[in-house]
Amino acid sequence: MPKQYLDLLGVPIAAHSLRTFAGMAEVGTIVVVCGDAWRALFEEQYALLSAPKPALAWAAPGAERQDSVASGLAAVPAGTEVVAVHDSARPLVAAADVRACLADAAASGAAVLAVPVKPTIKEVGDDGRVVRTLVRARLWEAQTPQCVRPALLRAGFAHVAALGLEVTDDVSVVEALGEPVVVTHGSYTNIKVGTTGGGARVRDWGRGLAPPAPRGR
């Protein structure tokens, strides 16, 4: 079973993100990228949400992450100002951080939620020897959501597709265009399940979280 569908505090991991985004007045539509076999899970959780709530749309996953995101982007309604691409394996994302990232993207075109790196990072050569120690003050760990204006994201995907490039996160396609990406300071609790010790930390932190605020328009 994919990790985002495992149980966390009584509901599937992916349901926590669904609840958070659905509780935000800024969100008009949630596009779920998943296989047909998992739609019922999201439909069940969506039915439990209080009204008013955003519309729910579907997109099929692709072979690679960038293919899945491009598929989801195609399902975004016309007139959408900013798209927030989120990994549902990050169930503890805070609505305040999402709002900050959305605002930065609306102002600049693209923004990524991130936190300063704490460990010392070494660049290592093929021979296993240290090449250099990177300046930690300039290193940030990218998280999600990553927020981009739809037209810019589409242009980025078309660009990397034309060049045959593979990217590991969404704002990388914006970087490939030579366009700026703003870093929005996130929270260290926004960890990804599947990382070392991530599941245990998510459970510990999740027990102390309050439920999302009621949605308002």
Describe this structure in words.
- The protein is α/β, with parallel strands linked by helices and 217 residues long.
- It has one domain: Spore Coat Polysaccharide Biosynthesis Protein SpsA, Chain A (Alpha-Beta Complex), CATH 3.90.550.
- Helices cover 33% and strands 20% of the residues.
- It contains seven helices and ten strands.
- The chain has a four-stranded mixed β-sheet with strand order 5-9-6-10. A two-stranded antiparallel sheet has the order 1-2.
- Strand 3, helix 2 and strand 4 form a beta-alpha-beta unit.
- The chain is globular and about 55 Å long.
- The relative contact order is 0.18.
- The C terminus is likely disordered.
CATH top level label: Alpha Beta
Give the percentage of residues in beta strands: 15-25%
Give the SSE order as H and E letters.
Answer: EEHEHEHEHEEEEHHEH
Instruction: Look at the structure and name the CATH superfamily.
Output: Spore Coat Polysaccharide Biosynthesis Protein SpsA, Chain A
CATH topology: Spore Coat Polysaccharide Biosynthesis Protein SpsA, Chain A
The average pLDDT value, as a whole number, equals: 90
Number of strands: 10
The domain tally reads 1
Side-by-side strand order of the widest sheet? 5-9-6-10
Largest sheet composition: 4 strands, mixed
CATH architecture: Alpha-Beta Complex
Tally of helical runs: 7
| Overall morphology | globular
Structural class, by secondary structure, is: alpha/beta
Helix content: 25-40%
Separation of termini?
Answer: 36 Å
Low-confidence stretches: 210-217
- Rg is 18 Å
